[in-house]
Amino acid sequence: MKFLCVYRPGAEHTDGPPDAEEMAAMGKLIGEMAKAGVLLATEGCMPSSKGARLRIADGDISVTDGPFPETKELIAGFCLMQVKTKAEAIEWTKRFLNVVGKGESEIRQIYETPICN
Q1: Is the peptide bond before 114 cis (omega within 30 degrees of 0)?
Q2: H-type helices in 1-117, by residue range?
Q3: How far apart are CA 21 and CA 38, in angstroms?
Q4: How many Å apart are CA 52 and CA 32, to the nearest integer?
Q5: Residue 7: other Cβ atoms inside 10 A
Q6: Hey, which of 21, 28, 98, 107 has its CA 20 to 30 A from 115?
Q7: What does the pLDDT read at residue 39?
Q8: pTM for the complete prediction?
Q9: Residue 84: how many CB atoms within 10 A of its CB?
Q10: HSE of 29 in the Cβ direction (CA atoms, 13 Å)?
């Protein structure tokens, strides 16, 4: 089963990168996930000032450049993992949240369709 874990740091989030201690702790967890064979991909996101939001309504698409005022809802990073159960995805995500120490993560199972040849 594949799960996407999306991380939102919360209202106190800053646009700066993590410090060296935070990076080391995250690197250790990423290494453990890779060694366990569950990590497929993970990345942090640049500040919302470098992004845009697109919305469609009645066939019209609007584009709004960042930064975005609702910082508590911003996505700061993601992890794509392959695990055996949802419970396992939850346990890895708990470990991640213990490393970052704040915010929230949402996990969503990914549809997996067979590739046709």
Answers
A1: no
A2: 20-36, 86-100
A3: 24
A4: 33
A5: 22
A6: 107
A7: 97
A8: 0.84
A9: 9
A10: 18
Tokens of 105: 């993560």
**Residue 12: pLDDT over 70:** no
How many whole angstroms separate alpha carbon 25 and alpha carbon 85? Answer: 25
3-state secondary structure of 31: helix
User: Which tokens hold the place of 51?
Assistant: 């992004």
CATH fold of 2-109 reads Alpha-Beta Plaits (3.30.70)
- Domain locations in the chain as residue ranges: 2-109
CA torsion through residues 50, 70, 12, 28, sign: negative
Residue whose structure tokens are 């910082």: 71
Tell me the percentage of the chain whose pLDDT exceeds 70: 92
60-65 and 52-57 beta bridge pairing? antiparallel
pLDDT tens digit sequence for 45-77: 888 889 999 999 999 999 999 888 776 678 889
Rounded CA-CA distance 16/111 in Å is 33
Mean pLDDT of 10-25: 78
Rounded to an integer, the average pLDDT of 86-110 is 95
